[in-house]
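Q: I'm building a small set of examples for a reading group on sequence design. Run inverse folding on the following structure and report the sequence directly after it, with nothing in between.
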């Protein structure tokens, strides 16, 4: 995004999770604005699950804006193994950060939620007003509910204290720099890793989780960062706002596309004993356009090509380092 396109009204910014996948792009976008100072707290120095560390961070950085991206998160399998940790850590981080930001006099708080917060059976496309109309899909409900509590806190603090905080709901993200660890990664990086490895090592097949019949919506990470920065600068409302592409893809079609783009020509074996997760995901993105002029502009095909190129280059660089 062109830094000069919109006026950015904040000067001292804390970005939790700013060294992570999405955070790096948000920080890069912030640094294009003249005079903006960005603090990225590292977990080794500030464990944000603990209130005392949140207080210390705010004293040290003295921000007028906090963008909260940090999360303890993973794919379906990782969610199933860590429901308690995912609930507690995410809930405590959000609760402490919003409360201490209010007490410190932070001018604005940007809370990043998750599409996992929506009910398991939500009419598509998901409209923000439907977010309370049912319980989330079971495999990631603890994570989704912990994040959704920031919406409750945000709205109640605005009502009682006049605290300016907003709540954004991104679709599933992907792009260069994603997590490609098969134990903890989400669907796109996991499939890219499997297909590239299978092609390189001559494997005859890869395994994909579930039935392949469910759908997902994916948002390219740079588009998401742009949406967050536009909302930060231009939106001060209490209503939650979706950030997405507005397009859904059936997982079976996604796998075939990734296989084609990676050059893997083998068999795809579906693990029907593994969970599918939520049946469908597609967001209504009209509110984001109406409130702060955001539309995603990277197609899934183009975003996948860039992500695959990045992964293959990183694999080549890693192999070269090991040979030295």
């Amino acid at each position: 995004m062109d830094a000069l396109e919109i006026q950015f009204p904040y000067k001292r910014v804390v970005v939790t999770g700013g060294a992570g996948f999405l955070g790096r792009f948000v920080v890069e976008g912030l640094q294009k604005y003249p005079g903006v100072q960005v603090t990225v707290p590292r977990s080794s120095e500030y464990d944000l699950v603990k209130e005392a560390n949140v207080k210390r961070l705010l004293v040290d950085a003295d921000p007028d804006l906090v963008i909260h991206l940090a999360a303890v998160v993973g794919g379906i399998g990782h969610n199933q193994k860590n429901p308690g940790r995912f609930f507690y850590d995410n809930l405590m981080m959000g609760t402490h950060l919003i409360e201490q930001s209010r007490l410190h006099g932070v001018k604005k708080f940007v809370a990043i939620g998750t599409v996992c917060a929506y009910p398991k059976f939500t009419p598509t496309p998901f409209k923000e007003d439907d977010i309370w109309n049912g319980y989330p899909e079971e495999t990631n409900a603890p994570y989704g509910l912990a994040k959704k509590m920031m919406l409750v806190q945000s709205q109640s603090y605005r009502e009682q204290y006049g605290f300016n905080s907003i709540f954004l709901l991104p679709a599933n993200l992907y792009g260069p720099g994603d997590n490609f660890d098969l134990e903890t990664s989400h669907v796109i990086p996991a499939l890219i890793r499997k297909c590239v490895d299978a092609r390189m090592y001559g494997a005859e097949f890869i395994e994909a989780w579930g039935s392949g019949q469910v759908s997902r919506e994916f948002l390219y990470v740079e588009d998401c960062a742009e949406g967050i920065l536009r909302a930060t600068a231009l939106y001060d409302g209490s209503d939650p706002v979706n950030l997405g592409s507005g397009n859904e893809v059936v997982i079976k079609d996604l796998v075939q596309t990734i296989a084609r783009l990676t050059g893997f020509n083998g068999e795809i074996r579906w693990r029907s004993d593994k969970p599918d997760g939520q049946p469908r995901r597609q967001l209504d993105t009209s509110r984001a356009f109406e409130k702060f002029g955001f539309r995603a502009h990277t197609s899934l095909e183009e975003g996948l090509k860039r992500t695959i190129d990045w992964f293959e280059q990183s694999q080549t660089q890693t192999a070269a380092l090991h040979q030295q």
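The CA atoms of residues 118 and 186 lie 18 Å apart.
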